[in-house]
Amino acid sequence: MNKERPAWLFAKFLRSPKAWISLTVIVVIALMAIFAPLIAPYEPTRQNLRNQLVPPAFAGGSMAHIMGTDLHGRDIFSRTIYGARVSLAMGILSVILAAAFGILTGLISGFYGGLVDDLIMRAADVMLAFPPIVLAICVIALMKPSMATVIIVLALVTWVWHARPVRSAVLKIREMDYIEASRAIGASNPRIIVKQVLPNIVPVIIVICTTQIGYMILLESALSFFGLTGTTLSWGWDIAVGRDYISVAWWMSTMPGMVLFATVISLNMLGDWIRDVTDPKMRGE
Questions:
Q1: How far apart are the first and last CA of the chain?
Q2: What residue segments make up the domains of the chain, in order of their start?
Q3: Which is the CATH superfamily of the domain at 76-279?
Q4: 3-state SS track over 204-244
Q5: Which of 146, 163, 188, 240 could be bridged to 225 by S-S, CB 3.0 to 4.6 A?
Q6: For the segment 105-157, what is each residue's pLDDT rounded down to a tens digit?
């Protein structure tokens, strides 16, 4: 790699408010999730009926509950921090599984073409015919809701989003002269895929995964909203519970909703920035 490349990227990062603001938000939320037991002032499930529906500190409430409390007197700030653990973990793990399968099928489909390509792409078309959230709800409803089930189901309904862009990138790369040269010297197809094709589609993979984590978090929150994730420590669950009290205790849904919004929009902004700096067309090269 060109030694000037990291310096160029760092300088461009510092000049882009979209990049460093979004990364800062993501890092802060991730650190809060990792160190939740040290940061959260209360146990997220501990009830205190004497502190029911206390408003946030900035809305006339107490600094003891900076985001207020819910119907059962549970601290919303603590629940939001622990909810980040669930949402981020499920979002990241589901993207890893979906990417592993999607990248593999995309590489095979794009590189080999022919009947293999047709079979994989027709399967992808079938998956795209169903809205992911509807398909996920149908599958999870037939099984016992749990975090592991949700992660696997989300991966199965979204692998195609990784497979198709990877296939498109591979279709261009496989026609390059260096691929033909590798074939001419007797390199096997698996070796060409691993050594030459895969490294050249890493920027595409990074952009897809960055943006898909945000979408996976939204899907997980939607499933939590319907009570299909097997846990009540989730942003989606707290938003669902608070919707019945929106007129008298707006903070129950608003606080976790704002953190969910900030997380997803930051991931999308970071993904857009990564796309801009890795795509020669966007850089004007």
A1: 17
A2: 76-279
A3: MetI-like (1.10.3720.10)
A4: HHHHHHHHHHHHHHHHHHHHHHCCCCCCCCCHHHHHHHHHH
A5: 240
A6: 999 999 998 899 999 999 998 888 888 888 888 888 888 788 888 899 999 98
